[in-house]
Every structure is written in C-alpha cells, then in structure tokens.
C-alpha cells in the first residue's frame, strides 16, 4: 500500500536525517558567516601582535557602504541581536567575553572551554515542574549558544560537540531524576572531552612520531600555532627524536610567536620566519605539519588562513604535507571556496590603515580552504589516511 | 629594501669629530693583548677597530682622533694600510700616541692638553659595533645645549631584555632617568641576585634631589653602548679633576653627585629596531654575544658579508652560515651548524662538527673534531679528535690531536698545544711566560715552582707554552666599582667571561591549548630559579624590612653606644633615635626592641639578686629613664614583653634581674600598673620555656602592685 | 681586463673622480643607496663623469677603465645587479659610438672632426636590421688606424662628447622609466578588473595609477608583504587616484581572494636572462597562487633591470636573497628567544620564468622566453 510505503520512506528519511545530523551535516550555515562587533573595547592580552584600532572613525553604516562591492561583503554583516542577559548563564557570559576578545583561540581550546562552561550550566540547572529535563534543558542551552555566537561565530568543531550534546540530552530517560541526570550528562561530557580530544590527541602524537626518527634529522615546517602540533613537537623532543622546526608566522593573528617561545623553552631548535619567506626555506624541509579546524567531506582542510599557501608551495617543491586533526573535526560539509564561509579578523588584529583616506579599507580573513590534492595525509586518532578517505571513514560510522 | 637616511657628505661646517679610544685600559683579553692591541683583535674576522670606524663613517662622522697607548705602532701600521687612509675616504683618522696614559681619564686629559678638539664630539671606544644614526643623537644633543649649557654629555644606551645575552649578569647598570628631558639622575651597577650575597649590591640609592624631578624612570633594562656625545667642557672637567680615571664610575658619578658643578648628563635610549644597534665588546662574554648578533644579522647592514675593503669576502648561506669566497673545503661528512663563519681557505675534515663558531682564514680542522661556540682566528690548525667549547683561539696556533678545551679557555698567539692536552675551564695559555707588568722579576721562587708544576700537569712536560692565571689577571680591572671587595670583583669578572650564565632558565611548561594566549612572554617573568627564590620574599610589605631592619638595628645600637659613652642627655639621644627611625622608616616596635635590648644589655649582671641587682638596673634604667619613656610610651605592654623576652633569651645573665627590671620600670614610671596587668594577662607572656618561668617569678611583683593599688584606693577613699 | 683604478687615468680633477668613485662604493656598501632604479642612476651618472674625465690613448684603455670602475662598484655591493647592467650598456654604447665616429672620420680623412653625418645610433631599436649590427661588430677588431698621435688625442676627446651624450640618454631612459612603462597600461587593465599587487614597487604603482586614471576607477588589493610591510606605502600613494578603491590584505589572505582577482601586477629587482626574476620576497608566493588559479601575472620593469650576468642565479643562489635586519621579525630585546632561534629575513627571492605571463618594460612587452633574445640584441657580449 502506498501509505505504508510512504511511511516507510518517511521513516527512512527520518532516520537518515538523524544520522546526518548526528554527524554534523544538517545544520544551516548562516550563523557561520556573521562576525560580531564586540561592544566593549577589545583589550587583548596577547603581546606584540596586538594592535588597538584607533584609526577608523567610520560609522558602521559608512563602513558597510564601502564594502558593497567587496567579495567579502557577506562577512561584514551587522551584528545579530544578542540574547537577553537574564537568559545567559554567567559562565557563558564570561566565555563569550573571552571569545570575543580572542583570549581563547583555536578549535580545541574553544571546544574545551565550551564544554566546561556547558557543564557548569547543566550543573546549575533544575527542571521546572511540568516539563522533562530532556526537553527543557535544550531550551535553556540554546540561548547560551546563541549568545556565544553573537560574541564570535561558532566554530565548526563547536558545532559537532553541541550537536552531540543535544543528542545526549534528548536521549535522557525522563524518569531519571534531576541530580542523576545532571551527573550523567557531566560524565558524558567528560568522556567526550577525554575520548575525542585528550586521548585522541595522544593517539595522534603516537602516529605522528612514526614519521620522525631518532637517528636521521628531520626539519619540520609548521605554520601559526596548533595546540596538537605543539604537544606533538614537545613529546617528540622528549622521546628523543632528532628534528628541528621551521616556524612560519603571518598576520593577522601572529600566533606563531607564542608557539616559538613554547618550543624554545622545550629546547627545540627553531627557525622563525614569515610566510612570505617560505620559498627560501622549503629546500631544507623534510615535511610540513598543518593544524586543522575542520576536515571537509571532500577531504579539504579548513584551517587558519595561510595554511593553503603553505600546502600549495610545499606541493610545488615536493614536500609532504600532513595535517593533524582529531576525528571530531571531521564534518559532512563541502566548501566551494575560501570566501563563502569565513571570518574577518577582529578589531584588535585589524591591519594598520591609520592615516589613510576613505577609499581604503582593510580585509583580513582568519581561515582558508586547502584542497585535498595538496595534502598527503590526515593524521587522526584512527591512523594516517589520505584526505579523500576521510568521508568514507565517516560514512561507515567509524568516527 | 628600506634605505637608511641619505648621507649628507657636504656637511663641512659641522664636521663631526669623534674620539676613539683604541685602548680599553684593562686586561680582560690577556694573553691576546700581550702582543696585539685589543682593538685589532678580530671580531667575526674583522678587526674591532674596523667595525668601529665603519660605524662612524656610515654615520657621517668626518674626522676621528684615534687615541692609542699600548701597541700604538701596530695600530698605526694597520691604519695606514686600511681603506680609511685612502685619500678618498670620507673619514679621516688622526692617530694620537700616548705612552703615559693608563686610564681613560688620563687619555682625555692628554687630549685636552693637545687642544685639538674645539666642538662637541663623539666619544667612543675602539671596540664598539653600531648602526645608530649618530647624527640624530648629536642633533638632539646640540638642541639641548642651546637651551641648557650645562648638559654636557649624552650617553647612548640600548634597551635589551632581562635575560638577554648582552647583559652582564654581575654588574648590570641601573639608570635613573627623568622621562621628559632624558636627564640622568643616578647611575649605578647592580648585580643579579643569584650572583652575589651582599645586600649592597642588590640595591641602589637615589639622592633626594632627584626626587624633586617629578617623574622618574628606574631602568635596569638598558645596556650601555659606550657611545657618548660630549661637549668640550668634558675635557676641561677631566683636567680639573685629575683623579677621574674611569668614564663611568668616576666621571659620571662625580658629575651626578656634585652639586657645585651643576652639570647634567642625558641619555639617549634606543628602544627598538628603528633606532639601530650598538654594543661594545667589553669582555669575552660580550665578544661572544656581539659576534652572534653580527652573524645573525641584527646589526644589518654591518654584517659579515658586507664586503669591507681589505677584508675576506664572505658568502652568506642558509642558516646564517658564511663561507669565504675562495678555497673553503668542507668534507662531505662534516657538519656546519647554524650561525657559523668559515673564512677563505679553511678546511674541515671528515666527521667534524662546527656549531655557532667562527673560523678565520686558513684554518684547518682535523677529523672528528667538535667545535662549539668557539672563535678561531687566522691560520690556526686544529688536529683530529679535538673538542673545543666556548673558547677563543688566536692566530697561528697549532692544536694537536685529542686536545680538549673546556669552557672559557683562551689560547694565545703561536701557542702549541700538545697531543692529549685537556685544558680545564677558564684556562688561559700564552706563548710566553706571564708576569705582572710584563717584567719577569723571578723573585718568588716557590710560587713559580708551583706554577711550573701546574703547567707541566696541564700542558704537558715538553710544552713550550705557559699558563696565564685567569683570576689574578682579571682582578686588575677598573670598570668595576672600586669600593667592592675582592670577592665582588672576582665574581663580576667571572660572569663577564664567555660561557658563564647566571643560572639556567627553568623549563616552564607554559603550553595552553589556546593558540593565542601563550604562556609568558613578558620579560619580567622569572626565568631563573635562584632569582625566583631570591625575590620570593620581596613583596611590597617586606620591602621595608629586608636589609633595612638589620641596618637600622645596627645604626640604632651604634647611636645608643655613642650616647652612653659620651654621656649625652636623654633628650638628645631620643631625638637622634627618632631621626634614625624616620630615616629608616622602621615600625615603632623595632625601635622599642632595640632600645630595650640595648638598655638591658648594658646592665651589670654580675651583681646577683636582690638589692645589688636592683642597683645595677637602676644605674641604667634610672639614668636613661626619659629616653626609654620617650621611645616606649606608645605601647608599654609591649615594652615589658620585650624585656621579658630579652631576659629569657639571655637567661644565664639576665634571668635574675628580671624582677629588678620590673621594679625599675615601675619606679621610674616607664610602665604603668595597668600596662603591667595587661602584660601579665598576655598569652605571650606565658609562653613555654624561659618566658614562663619569668612570668611565674613576676607573680609576686604583680601581687605587690595589686596591693599597692588597693591601698592607694583605700587611702583615696578615705 | 681587470686593471687598477688610479689617479693617472683621469685628467684634471682626478681627485674628484676618484673620490666620487670611492664615495659611491661606500654608499652602496653601507646600504645608503638601495634599489635598482637608484643604483642604476647613480652608476650611470658616475660613469658619465668617468668617461668625461678619463685620459686614454686608445679605446681599449677607456673601455678598461669603465669596466674597472663598474667592477669595483659591483665588488662593494654584489647584490645590486643593476650596476652590471648599466656598465655593460655603457660599454656597448662607447664601442658603438666610437665605431660610428671612426667610420665618419675614415670616410672623410682630412678632418677628424665629427659632423652631422655622425648618427647617434638608436639605443633600443629592437628592429635594427641585422646587417647594421654585423657592421659594427666587424669593425670592432680594427681600432688602430694610421693617424698622428695628436690627431688621435683630439679625436678621442671629441668622440668623448658623443659618448657622454649617449650615456646621458641612458640616464634619461632610467629617469623616465616609470612614464614609459605606464604608457600603455590601459591596454591591459580596464575598470572592471580587480588587481592584486604586493608590497611597494614604484614601477607597479605608476602602472596601476595610469590604468586607473585612464579607466576612471579600479579596485586594487594590496598585500602587506611581511616583514617590511611596505604595502601600506603603496596604499597611500594609490588611494590618491580618483575612483580607485584600495583594500589592504594580509599575506595569508591572498590565497582566499585569488579566485576574485583578475590580474596580478608586480615589480621586480632584477630580470634574469632566462626570463626569471629576482624580486621582493612574497612574489613567489603570490605568483604560485596566481598560477594555480590561472590568473595572469604582469611584471612591470625598466629595461635597465635586465641582466645578462652569467652567474648561475637561476638556481636561486642564496646570497642574492640579501638577508636584512633580523629585528624585523623578532624584537632584539626578547632575550630568551634571541639566543636560541635562528631568524632569517630574506629580502629577495627567485621566481621562475614559467610563473610570469608578460614583462611590460619601458620599451615594449615581452614574454619571458624572449628575454634572452632581447639581451643578445641590446647588451654587449
């Protein structure tokens, strides 16, 4: 009968939709592209790379006028209205402030911070009478997420984590009492963090160390700063591997400087230069390690702006390129170019156009998309795979 | 690339003059300086004087007076052959030879006598490397002179970080500057806390007059470049004060502390890259640091491949490696590390490694040799299996196989080190016998025997070289604060040697996941365990106590001693103590303690108990009662407690007189009954041990007081 | 033919000439003069002085002197290849002019005076007929001819005047490079184009400005170009043109925006004989990204930058990268780091000929593969 069939089809598509959502594909990307104009003056703790913007006196509408013909127009959108303060948990508010002034940067850091803040939110949650935790908690958490988005566009890894959490919340047994439910959820969050980030990190380090040797010297190319790469290099040094690091840095964030001090403290030989000097350094490089924000469904790498250039030039010089990514960063999306989904550099890191006229503006992007063909291997906790194999791993439910 | 500001060569009327001291008047580079002048020693294969003269020429100086003392003919010879003597050099150099000067002060006095200098001039040492735009500094100086005739000198200093390799840890200069006009108020040197125990070397004193300046900056992050813009008056000042020997310690401190002269000194601080680079090779430590700076191109455009006429042509390669243009032969299996220089015609044999080292021209390195952080000058040959670490080896040296040089060794010109020699750290070897003042008096037989034995032990019995002592030689330095102990001088000398560092940096694990907030990069963060400990207690609250309290007690006691001995009146003594207290800013409790302790210590304790005891106490307390009253009236309870504690501590002598003390305190109205009662009730008065026994003893006294009180009440009510 | 330069080679104010040579050497060595344009100009001016003051009895002597001067300048600053280019050009001009004068005077043996029959050969006439070229080279072997000594001296002096004129033309060419290059900018760039340029190049700047002025409006992206960040200067001068919208971007953003860029305009330091260039660091990155996106790369340059130097620059020899002040990357006072980190700030880098689409020079447009031909025709052996 057609109705039965229809029902079956509906069920099937429902199930499929759920699966897809669980993997992080179904979410609408519109919130991604909106940057937040922070209302408080950004006082950035980062040292010499920070710059206070005192030159631009254009009002927002004027600035908007300027951008009408820019390909990055969609990234200049006006800020979305934020959530009413009474709905925002103080921890979330604090996290939002830290995000918007770029004190917490990097996929792992942001996910960790988000998870710990949400744990606190859950910890202080009490189900009001007449509703169940599994439904009501979701409606408490949503405004928190919205608030965070108004501080800084959601990171893709955050997206995966939040989807996972919502699924866990939805699956809470309605009969469980509040206390147990809270503890259970917090425990699940701890496991998530432990499994998908910490332990995954350890596995990645182990896998990466197989590329290094204690007897032959390698020169590793690294760009900007990735938390997992930093850990890997320090562990490699402890494990007695023989290597030196060439570290490249670029605006707008100049994150490499901090990695530089950490590595030198650990006693690693470093060469520090700028992204533009890459060509002169490549003949000496054994392989390149890139950090990742997300691995896309076609194997492309979505990461800090500049990584694509590093990968491109490395390929031209036949230098192998590996990217280190925990599996929670694998997403079921495709980006056709680097512009449609991106983020503009925030106020504190804008380029210096002081003293220049109204015809001038500056634009700096924070991310770019590296095509899969430039990447030789994705090192994750499940092993080292060519980037095009990643979606297969995901589809088969391995990750 | 960004060009420097264009030179104006036609600036004839203001022909800028400079005075270069080719002699540093110290002997930190012996034995190299025994045969060669210090300024001609090579720094990255170019004589130091050449760097200095290039720096001046590039900065637009027109005329240089080169002041030479030791080995003047060598300097003149070199000068004659250099490109500075060519007719078309923009810089003319006039050598001045002096045979009698032994210090910078003498040199300046001679200059003044010769009357060669009429205008403001640049005073610089012959071992300075600089890319500073001196014209600008001079212009600033002249501008300042227009409005203030007393601004006689401008010092050029450069900002360096706290743990920077250029900073001498044992005596880093502290500048107290007023920021609006860059005037220098105090100049002093301070030692890194981990290098010295003495409190005086960790503190500086600022004269009161400077505090009137309004805003002061106290800066310990500036390194002295030894480039000074001087007014002509400076010459005169030296002539007038013929005890001025050293430019920094004598002259600057002299000017700053002298009110009569009323002259001022100013400072030009280079805060960042735009201002240029300037540093002076003062000792082997800075020799190492500046060599590395030049190789790493911080001193651009004064870099090893700069093609200075007459110097070896070097080619720059990846990793700041420089190879001579001709005849460099490095074996396939040899490894040349980063920041290394190999002059022309160098050869490095198989399996050898070079790490941050400089080889002059024609140096041959054998197989399996490790060179690290070392400086080898021309035409030296090094055998196989050697290891040379953080050392300087001069020209024409032959080092045979299996020799090892540990940290900080100097090997002089023409020495031959025999096979298997191992030089302990900080050894100096010369090809001639060392003697003070170069005169072999042969008087101290025993001493020279001892030296010979040592020499045979280290250098081998058939060696033709001699050991030069590093400590004794180092001691005769005049750049160190002359009021130091010998120990201090040795300490600072030690730290001024290559390879010495003030403690190792603690490996902080500052990694955080967040990619931007990276650990500490603020310079003030402690990077030294010892430093950390040393400053652990140095909080704002404690600041007054550390050192100050101890000093005050000492001062106070001294003052009381004087008062007692000379029989001052109580009032005078009290006034003196009060002034002392205000000056040291010590809390009252301290004062009381000192006074009570002192008085009690002055009591004749042999007298035993009873009446005699009381008499003894009365002698002291009675005589000085007003003083004690004055100093202790704020808190009498505390006074009694202090007395008790003192007696308890000095149990043997004072336990017996405690009662007498109490009585005297009462009789002379130093302490009231209420205070006594309050004291009696204190927990501290009942603390275990000696204190408790004294407390027990005083029971009778308290009871007596109570009785007396009730009696007087009764009598009042009657 | 390396000879020593000394006072005897110059007449009259020999001290001035020698001191000028020394001064220019020093300025080059101490980096007071930087960049192809400035270097070429100063070298040409000096060579003009040298030629006018030189004492020579045969043309070989004069050539030797000029070559020696050029060599000594190059020795003091091997990284400024414009010196060689100008020297070679001047040498070629001297030979040519001398030949012309010789021919003119040979035809008319009574007077060695130079008449209007003397033609100043066109310096950059690429289309010069082959036979004329052959003509001058055929004559090159016989410099000596039967004239009395005084006549020779007289002749030499007078031909000097013409040589100086020729050198003056070189100077003029260098000075007018910018206008000449930008002349036909509007042929290549229209108002709908979106241009990308990096750092600061005066040639590129005038090129873009000319295009913008003609077309009445243009959108230009300027990459900052670390570590010198001279992109800002470029922006400052570009924004003055009416209708130009300038956007400054960081180097890391170039890749993301490349799909929206229609043309890339770059300047250069030196053009090599294989069509490759040595340009400011950052050029390779931009060219590689442009190549990946099939965006044309226009290199604007004066012809004095084209060098035929036989050194193997194609391999990207390190020295030519000219590492500048490390302080641009890390602050010197960051003590902990300074000691342990190797900081390199290369100023120039090599870009392969395949990455350049066209060279637009002050005298014509050439694809990279034709540069070698151009050199053969323009410069002496």
Automatic annotation (TrEMBL), chain A:
Residues 1-62 are annotated as: Disordered. The keyword Electron transport does not apply. Residues 53-62 have a biased composition (Polar residues). Residues 33-52 have a biased composition (Low complexity). Residues 1-31 have a biased composition (Basic and acidic residues). It holds the Pfam family IF-2B. It is found in: Cytoplasm, Cytosol. Keywords: Cytoplasm, Initiation factor, Protein biosynthesis. Its main location: cytoplasm. SUPFAM superfamilies: NagB/RpiA/CoA transferase-like (SSF100950). GO terms for molecular function: translation initiation factor activity. GO terms for cellular component: cytosol. It comes from the Eukaryota. Component of the translation initiation factor 2B (eIF2B) complex which is a heterodecamer of two sets of five different subunits: alpha, beta, gamma, delta and epsilon. Subunits alpha, beta and delta comprise a regulatory subcomplex and subunits epsilon and gamma comprise a catalytic subcomplex. Within the complex, the hexameric regulatory complex resides at the center, with the two heterodimeric catalytic subcomplexes bound on opposite sides. Belongs to the eIF-2B alpha/beta/delta subunits family. This is Translation initiation factor eIF2B subunit delta. It comes from Wallemia ichthyophaga (strain EXF-994 / CBS 113033).
TrEMBL record, chain B:
Residues 429-455, 504-531 are annotated as: Disordered. SMART domains: eIF5C (SM00515). GO terms for cellular component: cytosol; eukaryotic translation initiation factor 2B complex. Its main location: cytoplasm. One of its GO terms (molecular function) is translation initiation factor binding. It is found in: Cytoplasm, Cytosol. Keywords: Cytoplasm, Initiation factor, Protein biosynthesis. The keyword Protein biosynthesis applies. Residues 546-715 form the W2 domain. Residues 504-519 have a biased composition (Low complexity). Residues 445-455 have a biased composition (Basic and acidic residues). The keyword Cytoplasm applies. Residues 520-529 have a biased composition (Acidic residues). Component of the translation initiation factor 2B (eIF2B) complex which is a heterodecamer of two sets of five different subunits: alpha, beta, gamma, delta and epsilon. Subunits alpha, beta and delta comprise a regulatory subcomplex and subunits epsilon and gamma comprise a catalytic subcomplex. Within the complex, the hexameric regulatory complex resides at the center, with the two heterodimeric catalytic subcomplexes bound on opposite sides. Belongs to the eIF-2B gamma/epsilon subunits family. This is Translation initiation factor eIF2B subunit epsilon. It comes from Wallemia ichthyophaga (strain EXF-994 / CBS 113033). The lineage of its organism: Eukaryota, Fungi, Dikarya, Basidiomycota, Wallemiomycotina.
TrEMBL record, chain C:
One of its GO terms (molecular function) is translation initiation factor activity. One of its GO terms (cellular component) is cytosol. It comes from the Eukaryota. InterPro entries: eIF2B_beta_subunit, IF-2B-related, IF_2B-like_C, NagB/RpiA_transferase-like. It is found in: Cytoplasm, Cytosol. Keywords: Cytoplasm, Initiation factor, Protein biosynthesis. Component of the translation initiation factor 2B (eIF2B) complex which is a heterodecamer of two sets of five different subunits: alpha, beta, gamma, delta and epsilon. Subunits alpha, beta and delta comprise a regulatory subcomplex and subunits epsilon and gamma comprise a catalytic subcomplex. Within the complex, the hexameric regulatory complex resides at the center, with the two heterodimeric catalytic subcomplexes bound on opposite sides. Belongs to the eIF-2B alpha/beta/delta subunits family. This is Translation initiation factor eIF2B subunit beta. It comes from Wallemia ichthyophaga.
């Amino acid at each position: 009968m057609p109705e039965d069939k229809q029902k079956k089809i509906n069920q099937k598509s429902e199930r499929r939709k759920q699966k897809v959502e669980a993997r992080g594909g179904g979410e609408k990307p519109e919130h991604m592209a909106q940057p937040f104009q922070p209302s408080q003056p950004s006082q950035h703790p980062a040292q010499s790379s920070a710059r206070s913007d005192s030159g631009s006196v254009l009002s927002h509408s004027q600035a908007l006028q300027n951008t009408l013909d820019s390909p990055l127009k969609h990234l200049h959108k006006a800020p979305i209205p934020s959530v009413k303060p009474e709905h925002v948990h103080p921890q979330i508010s604090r996290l939002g402030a830290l995000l918007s002034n770029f004190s917490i940067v990097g996929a792992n850091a942001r996910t960790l911070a988000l998870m710990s803040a949400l744990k606190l939110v859950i910890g202080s949650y009490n189900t009001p009478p007449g509703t169940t935790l599994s439904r009501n908690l979701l409606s408490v958490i949503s405004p928190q997420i919205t608030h965070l988005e108004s501080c800084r566009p959601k990171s893709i890894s955050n997206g995966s984590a939040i989807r996972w959490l919502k699924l866990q919340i939805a699956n809470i047994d309605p009969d469980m009492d509040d206390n147990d439910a809270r503890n259970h959820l917090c425990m699940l969050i701890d496991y998530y963090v432990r499994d998908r980030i910490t332990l995954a990190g350890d596995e990645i380090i182990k896998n990466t160390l197989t590329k290094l040797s204690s007897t032959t010297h390698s020169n590793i190319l690294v760009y900007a700063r990735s938390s997992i790469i930093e850990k890997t290099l320090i562990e490699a040094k402890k494990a007695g591997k023989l290597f030196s690091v060439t570290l490249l840095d670029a605006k707008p964030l100049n994150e490499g400087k901090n990695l530089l001090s950490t590595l030198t403290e650990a006693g690693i030989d470093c060469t520090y230069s700028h992204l533009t000097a890459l060509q002169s350094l490549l003949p000496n490089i054994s392989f390149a390690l890139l950090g990742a924000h997300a691995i896309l469904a076609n194997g492309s790498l979505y990461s800090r702006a500049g990584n694509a250039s590093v990968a491109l030039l490395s390929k031209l010089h036949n230098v192998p390129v590996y990217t280190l990514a925990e599996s929670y960063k694998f997403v079921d999306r495709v980006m056709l170019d680097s512009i449609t989904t991106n983020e503009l550099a925030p106020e504190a890191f804008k380029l210096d156009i002081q003293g220049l006229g109204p015809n001038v503006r500056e634009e700096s992007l924070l991310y770019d998309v590296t095509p899969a063909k430039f990447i030789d291997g994705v090192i994750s906790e499940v092993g080292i795979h060519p980037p095009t194999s990643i979606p297969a791993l995901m589809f088969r439910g391995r990750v | 690339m960004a060009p420097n500001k264009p030179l104006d060569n036609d600036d004839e009327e203001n022909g800028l003059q400079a005075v270069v001291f080719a002699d540093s008047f110290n002997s930190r580079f012996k034995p190299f300086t025994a045969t060669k002048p210090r300024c001609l020693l090579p720094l990255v294969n170019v004589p130091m004087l050449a760097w200095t003269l290039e720096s001046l020429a590039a900065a637009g100086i027109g005329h240089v007076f080169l002041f030479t003392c030791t080995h003047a003919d060598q300097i003149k010879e070199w000068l004659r052959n250099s490109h500075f003597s060519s007719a078309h050099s923009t810089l003319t150099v006039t050598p001045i030879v002096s045979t009698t000067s032994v210090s910078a002060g003498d040199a300046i006095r001679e200059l003044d006598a010769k009357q060669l200098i009429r205008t403001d001039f640049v005073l610089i040492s012959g071992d300075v490397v600089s890319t500073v735009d001196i014209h600008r500094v001079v212009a600033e100086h002249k501008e300042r002179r227009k409005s203030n005739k007393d601004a006689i000198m401008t010092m050029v200093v450069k900002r360096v970080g706290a743990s920077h390799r250029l900073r001498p840890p044992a005596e880093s200069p502290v500048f107290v500057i007023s920021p609006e006009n860059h005037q220098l108020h105090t100049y002093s040197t301070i030692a890194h806390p981990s290098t010295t125990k003495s409190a005086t070397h960790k503190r500086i004193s600022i004269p009161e007059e400077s505090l009137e300046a309004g805003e002061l900056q106290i800066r310990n992050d500036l390194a002295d470049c030894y480039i000074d813009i001087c007014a002509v008056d400076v010459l005169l000042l030296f002539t007038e004060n013929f005890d001025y020997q050293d430019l920094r310690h004598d002259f600057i401190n002299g000017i700053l502390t002298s009110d009569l002269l009323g002259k001022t000194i100013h400072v030009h601080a280079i805060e960042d890259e735009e201002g240029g680079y300037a540093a002076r090779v003062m000792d082997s430590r800075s020799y190492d640091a500046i060599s590395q700076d030049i190789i790493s191109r911080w001193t651009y455009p004064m870099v090893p491949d700069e093609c200075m006429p007459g110097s070896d042509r070097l080619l720059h390669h990846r990793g700041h490696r420089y190879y001579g243009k001709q005849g460099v032969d490095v074996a396939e299996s040899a490894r040349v590390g980063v920041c290394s220089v190999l002059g022309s015609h160098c050869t490095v044999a198989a399996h050898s490694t070079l790490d941050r080292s400089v080889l002059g021209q024609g140096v041959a390195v054998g197989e399996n040799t490790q060179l690290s952080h070392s400086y080898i000058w021309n035409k030296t040959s090094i055998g196989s299996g050697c290891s040379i670490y953080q050392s300087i080896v001069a020209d024409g040296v032959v080092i045979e196989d299996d020799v090892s040089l540990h940290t900080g060794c100097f090997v002089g010109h023409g020495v031959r080190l025999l096979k298997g020699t191992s030089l302990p750290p900080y050894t100096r070897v010369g090809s001639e016998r060392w003697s003070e003042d170069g005169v072999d008096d042969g008087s101290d037989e025993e001493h020279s025997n001892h030296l010979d034995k040592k020499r045979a032990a280290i250098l081998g019995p058939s060696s033709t070289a001699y050991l030069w002592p590093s400590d004794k030689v180092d001691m005769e330095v005049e750049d160190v604060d002359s009021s130091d102990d010998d120990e201090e001088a040795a300490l600072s000398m030690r730290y001024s040697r290559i390879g010495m560092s003030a403690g190792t940096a603690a490996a902080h694990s500052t990694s955080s996941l967040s990619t931007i907030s990276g650990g500490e990069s603020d310079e003030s963060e402690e990077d030294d365990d010892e430093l950390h400990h040393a400053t652990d207690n140095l909080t704002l609250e404690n600041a007054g106590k550390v050192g100050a309290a101890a000093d005050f007690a000492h001062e106070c006691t001294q003052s009381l001693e004087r008062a007692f001995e000379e029989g001052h009146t109580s009032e005078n003594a009290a006034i003196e103590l009060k002034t002392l207290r205000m000056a040291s800013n010590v809390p009252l409790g301290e004062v009381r303690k000192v006074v009570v302790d002192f008085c009690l210590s002055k009591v004749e304790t042999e007298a035993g108990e009873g009446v005699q005891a009381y008499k003894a106490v009365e002698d002291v307390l009675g005589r000085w009662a007003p003083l004690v009253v004055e100093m202790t009236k704020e808190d009498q309870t505390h006074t009694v407690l202090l007395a008790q504690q003192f007696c308890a501590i000095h149990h043997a002598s004072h336990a017996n007189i405690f009662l007498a003390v109490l009585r005297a305190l009462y009789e002379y109205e130093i302490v009231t009954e209420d205070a006594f009662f309050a004291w009696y009730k204190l927990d501290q008065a009942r603390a275990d041990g000696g204190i408790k026994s004294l407390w027990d003893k005083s029971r009778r006294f308290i009871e007596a007081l109570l009785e007396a009180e009730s009696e007087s009440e009764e009598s009042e009510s009657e | 033919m390396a000879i020593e330069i000394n006072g005897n080679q110059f007449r009259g104010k020999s001290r001035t000439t020698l001191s000028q040579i020394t001064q220019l050497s020093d300025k080059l060595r101490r980096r007071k003069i930087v960049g192809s344009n400035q270097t070429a100009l100063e070298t040409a001016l000096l060579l003009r002085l040298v030629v006018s003051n030189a004492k020579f009895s045969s043309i070989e002597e004069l050539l030797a002197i000029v070559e020696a001067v050029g060599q000594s300048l190059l020795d003091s600053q091997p990284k400024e290849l414009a010196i060689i280019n100008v020297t070679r050009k001047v040498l070629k001009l001297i030979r040519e002019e001398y030949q012309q004068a010789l021919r003119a005077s040979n035809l008319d043996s009574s007077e060695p005076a130079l008449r209007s029959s003397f033609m100043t050969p066109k310096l950059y006439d690429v289309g010069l007929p082959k036979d004329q070229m052959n003509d001058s080279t055929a004559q090159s072997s016989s410099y000596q001819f039967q004239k009395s000594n005084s006549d020779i001296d007289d002749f030499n002096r007078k031909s000097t005047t013409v040589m100086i004129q020729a050198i003056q033309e070189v100077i003029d060419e260098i000075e007018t490079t910018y206008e000449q290059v930008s002349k036909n900018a509007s042929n290549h760039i229209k108002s709908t184009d979106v241009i990308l340029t990096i750092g600061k190049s005066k040639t590129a700047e005038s090129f873009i400005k000319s295009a913008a002025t003609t077309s009445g409006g243009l959108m230009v992206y300027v990459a900052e170009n670390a570590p010198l960040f001279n992109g800002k200067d470029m922006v400052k001068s570009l924004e003055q043109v009416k209708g130009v919208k300038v956007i400054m971007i960081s180097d890391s953003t170039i890749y993301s925006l490349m799909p929206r860029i229609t043309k890339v305009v770059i300047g250069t330091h030196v053009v090599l004989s294989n069509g490759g260039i040595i340009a400011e660091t950052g050029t390779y990155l931009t060219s590689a990204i442009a190549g990946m996106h099939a965006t044309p790369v226009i290199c604007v340059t004066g012809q004095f930058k084209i060098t035929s130097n036989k050194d193997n620059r194609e391999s990207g020899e390190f020295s030519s990268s000219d590492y500048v002040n490390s302080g641009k990357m890390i602050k010197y006072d960051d003590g902990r780091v300074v000691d342990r980190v190797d900081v390199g700030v290369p100023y120039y880098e090599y870009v392969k000929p395949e990455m350049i689409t066209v060279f637009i020079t002050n005298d014509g447009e050439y694809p990279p593969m034709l540069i070698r031909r151009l050199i053969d025709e323009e410069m002496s052996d």
